[in-house]
Each structure stands twice: as C-alpha cells, then as structure tokens.
Write a structure and sequence with these properties.
The chain is mainly alpha-helical and about 180 residues long. It is about 75% helix and about 0% strand.
C-alpha cells in the first residue's frame, strides 16, 4: 500500500468511491482522520497558522475532497499531496478573505477620514520597503496587475513552477517582515 494514497490500494480506493456515492462515510472517516491531523500539523508549521485557522482550512478541504470523490473528479494517484495542497489553498484563501474583511470593517467604522484616501497600514508599508525588487515586481504583477502566474512565467522566461515557488517565498518573506 502506498503512503501517498493514504495507504489505499487501487481496489480499496474504488470501494471508497462506491461507498461515498452511497453516502456511506465510515471508511472515508477512518482513512482521512489520520491525514486530517497530519494536515493540521503541516499548516501550522508551514504557514504559522493557529489551530482554529488550520482546522477550518483542513475541514473545508475535506468537504471539497469528499465532493470531488462523489463527482468522480478524483483518481487514484498522489491523493495525499492533493489533499494537503487543497488545504493549503483553503488556508491562504481564508486568510486573504479575513484581511479583506478586516480592511472593509475598518473603513466602514471610519477610522480614516472619508476625504483622505485609505492609507496602507504602516506595518505593511515598512515590510514592503524591505522586500527585494524581484518580489515587489512579482507580487505587484500578480495581485495588483491581476496577471496569472503562467503569464508572468512567460514574461520572465521561467517555468510556471519556478514562478509559483518564487511567489510563495515572496509572500512568506512579506508575512515574516510584517510579523517582526
């Protein structure tokens, strides 16, 4: 049995899908309970996530993962990696939405005068100044210019995987600088 597929053989994987389509979740719960815990540890370690945020992201990923099983969108392969990646993306999406909500709440509570444009929080501004030019350029293109990483990779003559990793490192560095 392969660890990358939660220890499932191809036959056991097929049975899991059949069970889920019948809404029988006992086997699914057994298989994913261990992975759920490992994913919590991963999110806490890699993103310095607190327990509640990591738990929410892993649970959202678990629900989405189950739905994909039922819809026949998942196939026997590196399921462990896929689940962890989905949980990571859920965590980052949830974190981004939390920041947006906080910014909107602050603006609505009128902490800043309406006549002045909303300023970038001081911590972010200071961290941005310390960030390298390559990171600033990449993050600006992706987040503000709404460019896809594939487009940025083509522009920089790099592989999409290289640009994705660079973006992840830049975001982590920016977060670290903000939290200093």
């Amino acid at each position: 049995m392969e660890h990358k597929n939660f220890g499932l053989t191809p036959t056991a994987f097929e049975q899991l899908v059949v069970d889920l389509k019948k809404n029988e979740t006992h086997f699914f719960e057994q298989v994913f309970t261990k992975q759920f815990g490992e994913t919590l540890v991963y999110l806490k370690r890699e993103y310095s996530a607190d327990h509640e945020d990591a738990y929410d992201a892993a649970m959202d990923a678990l629900i989405a993962f189950r739905l994909r099983f039922v819809q026949g969108k998942l196939h026997y392969g590196n399921l462990r990696f896929l689940f962890t990646k989905m949980a990571s993306q859920m965590y980052l999406r949830n974190k981004k939405n939390t920041i947006r909500t906080l910014e909107n709440d602050l603006a609505q509570e009128q902490y800043l005068p309406e006549s002045e444009p909303q300023e970038v929080p001081q911590q972010f501004h200071l961290a941005w100044q310390k960030l390298g030019d390559n990171c600033k350029d990449l993050l600006t293109k992706h987040y503000y210019g709404k460019m896809k990483l594939l487009e940025i990779a083509e522009e920089l003559s790099k592989t999409p995987a290289t640009v994705r990793k660079q973006k992840e490192r830049c975001v982590k560095k920016l977060k670290d600088l903000i939290n200093v």
